[in-house]
Amino acid sequence: MPQDTQNIDALFKPAAARPDDKEKISRESVTAFQDSWRRLRQNKAAIISLVILVIMLLLAIIGPWIGHHNYYDTDYGAVYQKPNADHWFGTDKFGRDQWARIWEGTRISLLIAVLAAALDLVIGVAYGAVSALLGGRTDNVMQRIIEILTGIPSLIIIILLMMVMKPGIITIMIAMSITGWVNMARLVRAHIMKLKSQEFVLAARTLGTSTSRIIWKHLIPNTIGIIVINTMFTIPSAIFTEAFLSFIGLGLQSPMSSLGVLINDGFASLNTQAYLLLYPSIVIVLIMVTFNILGDGLRDALDPRMRK
Amino acid sequence: MKRYIGIRIIYLILTLFIISTVTFFLMKALPGTPFDEEKLAQLPQEQKQMIYASYGLDKPVFTQYVNYIKNVAKGDLGTSFFYTGQKVKDIISSRLFPSALIGLQAVLLGLAIGMILGIVAAYRHNTGWDYATMIIAVLGVSIPNFVLAALLQYFVGLKWGLLPVAFWESYPSSILPSIALCVGVIALIARFVRTEMLEVLDQDYVTTAKAKGLGTMRIMFQHVIRNSLISVITILGPIVVNLLTGSLVIENIFGIPGIGSLFVDSIKMNDYSTIMGITIFYSAFYVLVMLVVDLLYGLVDPRIRLASGKG
Amino acid sequence: MNSLLEVTDLQVSFYTYAGEVQAVRDVSFSLGKGETLAIVGESGSGKSVTSKSIMRLLAKSAKIKNGSIRFEGKELASLPEKQMQNIRGKDISMIFQDPMTSLNPTMTIGKQITEVLRKHQNMGRDAAAKRAVELLNQVGIPNPEKRLKQYPHQLSGGMRQRVVIAIALACNPKVIIADEPTTALDVTIQAQILELMNRLQDQMGTSIILITHDLGVVANMASRVAVMYAGKIVETGTVDEIFYESRHPYTWGLLASMPKLHEKSDELQAIPGTPPDLSDPPKGCPFAARCPYAMEICYEQMPSYTEHTGTHRAACWLQDSRAPKVERPLAAGGER
């Protein structure tokens, strides 16, 4: 068709400069945070876990008030009641309402775990960062100390400490943190050491960037990921430790409530009143599972290279 | 290599020394005594002194400490406060067998199942097998072992009556506790092997093996699985911790006369010397395992073996 | 020249969460017996993917969408995996880029050489070990008996690459695909390895597909060259045709960016811009956006090949009779 040939012929002339084309990137650019969030949202298991966790958190806060009873009132007229309209999760051997006790216990367990994780975070990050940033002899000494601490089975030390201190929220938290920060310190140090030798940091240094700017602009933003991920795994392990201590009789004591106390009480009457063990067990397993899945999801989202 | 082992042993002794010291002073800081306070109060002063003297409690704390460390160095962990007249060392060794049996069964079972699950999950990456393994792994690390033990006891033991629920009578008594213990091990290993193997599958040398025209199974066994399993040795440390912790509660739940239940009982009885003895025993065990792990790793991985052989 | 390997209209795509990435788009070439074909291009041009497709060693996320790969009359693109295993390592073998990672660190050198012999040549342990010693001698590794018992990390990079070559040669393959065989090596070692490959090819008459981005290596080794850009072969010809008669502006750019020792020049010439995103390839010529001679038509339609000689063709609108005449620049071998 001559018309077409005409058109094509007309196209044989130098093209106007299209400067945009050279640098055009067809996908829109996203910040690291948006990118992580998008990857996390695609992880269905992690999102479901997040939702369940939020529900549990809400119940831990308001749960004790939406039932008909508080967590410490005994009622000898209503002991060992199976779950019913008045006592949604039944009652224990003192006639205490299990619904209120479980959510009160969840709150205490979460509180202990979050506080312990926060303490680990503060000590661990400070220790690891100082060790990595100062380097040299200081780093060497600090690493030897860590090496010895990791040689000690931490749970044994926690048990001994709990024997000495009066059981309570603060003491459990302290006992767990005395050994718990080591892991965070090692991770943070290793990560900063790795970053320090990486080219973008070397490049920043070559360009004359000040040390404090390198720390704030390069090292800290790039370390936050592993700190968040590690904390996500510290919390469930702290919940476990609290429950473990209460189970062997070294944690909180009745009438205080925690998931460990409830499981311990439930185990005592397992043969006849299985529900006393079942409900707190379900709650603790749900919390541990959702935290672990969410932690995995965050790790994949924040560091796609580690994704498997 | 010799130098390296030497340094490691110095560390080991230092660690044990620190643990013994910490344990000793923590026990000294405990409120109350291991004795029945009310009965003790009724005794005449002289008899009280005699009882204290027989345990060496009449001396200044520092002298007690020096004596204690000296004895520990000689392998003497002292005399129990509760089981009167019995040596802590003897009590521990009399309780060793049940704990060792259950622990060993749990490790072997956990290793076998965990490795198989991890390998299958990585080989069938992103399929139902993989997802099922990951679910098992997450549940395994998430369900507290004492909850699992209690549930096993309730369902398998009480409701269905399949296996003995408690007490140490015959071999079947060891099955439920071993299962309760091994679930955590399975989860740890399956997860680790899976990650490790996925990493190896991405390595260039696996492509080389494929380019040689080797069969899938040969590549898997000769190149991939071998190299993935080498580093499983490195997580034996956490696994041992997992087992020690687990044994404390699980032996109690199933009424097993092992070291774990002895430890928890001693805590309840304020039996200081036994608590200290088991603490040191556990720590020594843990530190030794970590040393063996290190040395084994050097033996299995040629890169490390030769590197340290030169130095 | 009868052709041993014939690739026609090959299309390979990666399927990522961001969508389909068309890594190789309608690539055709052939390889004759005893010939060395160099595939040249910058990273991401699809040259490695092409070679992996021939070996059928693509990652799981990649798929051969279309096209055929015929080797001695057999269609490799659809060959069952079992039969493909009998071709890999025996008829077609491969040399990889990085000798530091392409050998199994926990297996002795000997085992890694003998396992390919035992698979394809049905050799026993002793026969395979004897052949392995021969092979190591052939690739110039001193003390072969001792080396057989060693692990990869005990060898230098150059020695390891010789081992990789020995493995590739083990079964006297008809085709060797060398994917950037010298990129990871020191310059002095590079020359040794290239010389070794040249010598072995003369001795054994093997055909080689050489994947590289280094035109210096091409000049040393190849008889024919295919220039790839954005998943397409933009120009192909004999070495002389590419170095002295090239027609495509991208080839000119490549030649101009090659540092020259004997010519005094103040600066290296680079090709400005970056290759297009292959998850959304342009409808016209992929090089148009970077091409100093680009015309309106270049953005609209992909040019077809223009044959210059029986061996030389290029895909560029400048070859069209309607296009303005453009002189090949001096730096790319143009007339003085």
From TrEMBL, chain A:
It is a multi-pass membrane protein. PROSITE patterns: ABC_TM1 (PS50928). The keyword Cell membrane applies. InterPro entries: BP-dependent_transpt_permease, MetI-like, MetI-like_sf, OppC_N. It is found in: Cell membrane. CDD domains: TM_PBP2. Residues 106-295 form the ABC transmembrane type-1 domain. GO terms for cellular component: plasma membrane. It holds the Pfam family BPD_transp_1. The chain crosses the membrane at residues 45-66, 108-133, 145-163, 169-188, 223-252, 272-298. It comes from the Bacteria. One of its GO terms (biological process) is transmembrane transport. Belongs to the binding-protein-dependent transport system permease family. OppBC subfamily. This is ABC transporter permease subunit. The lineage of its organism: Bacteria, Bacillati, Bacillota, Bacilli, Bacillales.
TrEMBL record, chain B:
GO terms for biological process: transmembrane transport. One of its GO terms (cellular component) is plasma membrane. Gene3D superfamilies: MetI-like. It is found in: Cell membrane. The chain crosses the membrane at residues 9-27, 102-123, 135-155, 175-193, 228-254, 274-300. InterPro entries: BPD_transp_1_N (IPR045621), MetI-like (IPR000515), MetI-like_sf (IPR035906). It is a multi-pass membrane protein. Its main location: membrane. Residues 96-297 form the ABC transmembrane type-1 domain. Keywords: Cell membrane, Membrane, Transmembrane, Transmembrane helix, Transport. Belongs to the binding-protein-dependent transport system permease family. This is ABC transporter permease subunit. It comes from Paenibacillus dendrobii. The lineage of its organism: Bacteria, Bacillati, Bacillota, Bacilli, Bacillales.
UniProtKB/TrEMBL annotation, chain C:
The lineage of its organism: Bacteria, Bacillati, Bacillota, Bacilli, Bacillales. It is a peripheral membrane protein. Residues 5-255 form the ABC transporter domain. One of its GO terms (molecular function) is ATP binding. Belongs to the ABC transporter superfamily. GO terms for biological process: peptide transport. SMART domains: AAA. Pfam families: ABC_tran (PF00005), oligo_HPY (PF08352). PANTHER family: DIPEPTIDE TRANSPORT ATP-BINDING PROTEIN DPPD, OLIGOPEPTIDE TRANSPORT ATP-BINDING PROTEIN APPD. It comes from the Bacteria. It comes from Paenibacillus dendrobii. It is found in: Cell membrane. Keywords: ATP-binding, Cell membrane, Membrane, Nucleotide-binding, Transport. This is ATP-binding cassette domain-containing protein. GO terms for cellular component: plasma membrane.
